[in-house]
Amino acid sequence: MSESSGMSRQQRLVFWLAMFAIFVFLVWLLRSVLLPFVAGGILAFFLDPATDRLERVMPRWAATILILVLFLVVCLLAILLFVPLLVSQIAGLISALPNYTQLLDEFFRPAMQWLQERLGEEQVAQLRESATSFVGDALAVAGSVVTGVLRSGVALLSLLSLLVITPVVAFYLLRDWDRLVATVDDQLPHRYRDTIRRLASEVNTTLQRFLIGQATVCLILGVAYAVALTIVGLNFGLVIGLIAGALTFIPYVGSLVGFILSVGIALLQFDDWVMWVVVAAIFFAGQAIEGNFLTPKLVGSSVGLHAVWVIFALMAGGALFGFTGVLLAVPVAAVIGVLIRFSFERYRQSSLYLDDEPADGAGKPE
Known about the structure:
This protein is mainly alpha-helical and 366 residues long. Helix content is 85%, strand content 0%.
């Protein structure tokens, strides 16, 4: 009987591993066309709670249309308001790069002269050559990434398909969300139904609190950084603030990138050290508000997705599957995190951890 049970358990493990391998293979095989569908699914997941509330006073299809229309109108207004400013600031930044390069050269020239006096011209030349090589390699990598993105489907045609297909996919998924969940629930094996439901509920809670909460944090910080930097008169403050806010989705990266860009431009733009401190203080204040108020309130401390795990998931997803992998990274990380916690929970309840049973053959009479 134990042998039969063991074979059955082994077969189940092989089955689920095979299903997971097939899923990963299909995502890799179809990664060039999955982007609008993944984006539509994430959008439907975001809007489902609001649609459920509206469903109490109107039919599901009407609630779906209303929520999607409101969402698209808000996005369109944001594009009409911010895109012209962003385009003008980005164009200004590109045109100002030669001047900034010259200013950087003048800024670091005293330090280079000091190094020449201490190390000699030959070693300084080697350092400069190494720095130039490093910058060239970094630019080459960035160029290859951009080229890869353009080749992998974020060219004009794929962008248009993303804009057209994503709302359609989101509409059908949002309209049939409860029916799809009920269909999946009906297919669960009876023996493990309660366990799977509990794990699915934990995954849903984790994703809702992390994705929706983190998106809200990014929006608040992006607007706050952009407004604050614009008020103090920093060149390209709007672009830098929005970039920092968007990158806040990756823990600590948004504040770090925004700090480096804004302080670097402030050093070149202002001669007053007070303005340098003010610009730096904006990001220190933003990081403090995010860590002590926004993230605990909007995301929560019990989500279970550690910052390092999120960074690894985003990098691995992007490296394996491109932008589609970035979108799938956090949901997959949440599922894996819940399964790992469940495995440790079972392990702590087992005799292997509790050691309340003798080992095989121990204590048995010969």
